[in-house]
C-alpha cells in the first residue's frame, strides 16, 4: 500500500523546499511477468541506455541511503521526516529495479559486469570522508531529478515503450522529483558551519567529477549491452549519441538544469515541478491510497 509520510512545517535556515510538500511512499510493483527484449519501442539504443542505468540502481541507491542517513542526527523534524520518506522510497526503487534487471538477464543480457563495477567503485570509497559521499549523492540525485522531470514532461521518451516498463520508469520518476531536495537539504544541514564559498566549491567540484564518471561509465555500459545485440562500431556510437542528444535527446534537454546547479544559492526546489507528479498520479489514482 502507499503511505503518505507526514512532514511538519518547521522552517529551515537554507532551503526553499515547499512547506506543504508531502513525500508519498508508493508501494508499487512492476515487471513480474515478461517484457520484450527491446522494450524501448523495439529499438536497441533506448533499451541499452535504460538497462545500463537500471543495473546501477540497486547498489547505487543503497549508497544514497547510507550517505543521507549518516547526517540525519540533529536534523529538524521536517528534514528528519523527509529523510525517512526518502529511505522508504529508495528501498522500493531498489526492489523494482532488481526485478527489472532480472528480466533483462532473462533476455540474455549480461548486466552483472555493470553491477560488479559499481561494487568495486563503492569499495574504493570506503574510508573516504562521509561528507564527500553525501556531496556525490547530492549530485547524482540532481541527475535523477533532471531526467525524471524530462521523462514525465516529454511523452516521447516512453511513448512507444512496453507499457509495464514505462509505468515503472514513470513511477520512479515521480518519486525522484518528490524527494529531489532531501539530499541537498541534508547537505545544508551537515555543512551548516561551512562558509557559503566552501559549500559551493565542494558541491560544484563534485558535480563536475560525478558528471565525467557518470557519462563515461554509462556510455561504456551501454556500448557493452549494444554489442550483446550485435551492434558495434560507428553504428553503436552514432545510434546512442543520437538517442541521447537528438531524439528524444534527454542529455540535451537537461543541460539547462545541469548548469543551474552551479549557481550560487541554487536549490533543487528553485523550480517547483510537482505538477509533473500529478501527471503520473492522474493516470494511477491508486497511488494516492493511504496504507491500511
Automatic annotation (TrEMBL):
One of its GO terms (molecular function) is hydrolase activity. Keywords: Hydrolase. The keyword Hydrolase applies. InterPro entries: UCP07580 (IPR016516). Pfam families: Metal_hydrol (PF10118). This is Metal-dependent hydrolase.
Amino acid at each position: 500500500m502507499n503511505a503518505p509520510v507526514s512532514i511538519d512545517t518547521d522552517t529551515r535556515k537554507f532551503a526553499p523546499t515547499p512547506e506543504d510538500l508531502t513525500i508519498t511512499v508508493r508501494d508499487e510493483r512492476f515487471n513480474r511477468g515478461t517484457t520484450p527484449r527491446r522494450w524501448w519501442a523495439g529499438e536497441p539504443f533506448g533499451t541499452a541506455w535504460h538497462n545500463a542505468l537500471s543495473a546501477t540502481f540497486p547498489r547505487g541507491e543503497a549508497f544514497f541511503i547510507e550517505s543521507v542517513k549518516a547526517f540525519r542526527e540533529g536534523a529538524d523534524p521536517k528534514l528528519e521526516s523527509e529523510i525517512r520518506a526518502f529511505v522508504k522510497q529508495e528501498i522500493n526503487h531498489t526492489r523494482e529495479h532488481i526485478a527489472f534487471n532480472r528480466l533483462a538477464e532473462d533476455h540474455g543480457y549480461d548486466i552483472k559486469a555493470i553491477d560488479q563495477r559499481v561494487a568495486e567503485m563503492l569499495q574504493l570509497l570506503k574510508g573516504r570522508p562521509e561528507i564527500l559521499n553525501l556531496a556525490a549523492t547530492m549530485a547524482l540525485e540532481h541527475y535523477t531529478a533532471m531526467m525524471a522531470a524530462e521523462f514525465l514532461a516529454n511523452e516521447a521518451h516512453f511513448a512507444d515503450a512496453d507499457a509495464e516498463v514505462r509505468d515503472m520508469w514513470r513511477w520512479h520518476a515521480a518519486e525522484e522529483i518528490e524527494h529531489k531536495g532531501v539530499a541537498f537539504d541534508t547537505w545544508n544541514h551537515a555543512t551548516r558551519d561551512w562558509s557559503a564559498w566552501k559549500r559551493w566549491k565542494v558541491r560544484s567540484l563534485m558535480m563536475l567529477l560525478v558528471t565525467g564518471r557518470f557519462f563515461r561509465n554509462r556510455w561504456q555500459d551501454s556500448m557493452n549491452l549494444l554489442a550483446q545485440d550485435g551492434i558495434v562500431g560507428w553504428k553503436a556510437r552514432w545510434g546512442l549519441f543520437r538517442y541521447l542528444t537528438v531524439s528524444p535527446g534527454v542529455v540535451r534537454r537537461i543541460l539547462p538544469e545541469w548548469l543551474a546547479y552551479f549557481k550560487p544559492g541554487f536549490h533543487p526546489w528553485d523550480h517547483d515541478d510537482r505538477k509533473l507528479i500529478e501527471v503520473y498520479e492522474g493516470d494511477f489514482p491508486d497511488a494516492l491510497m493511504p496504507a491500511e
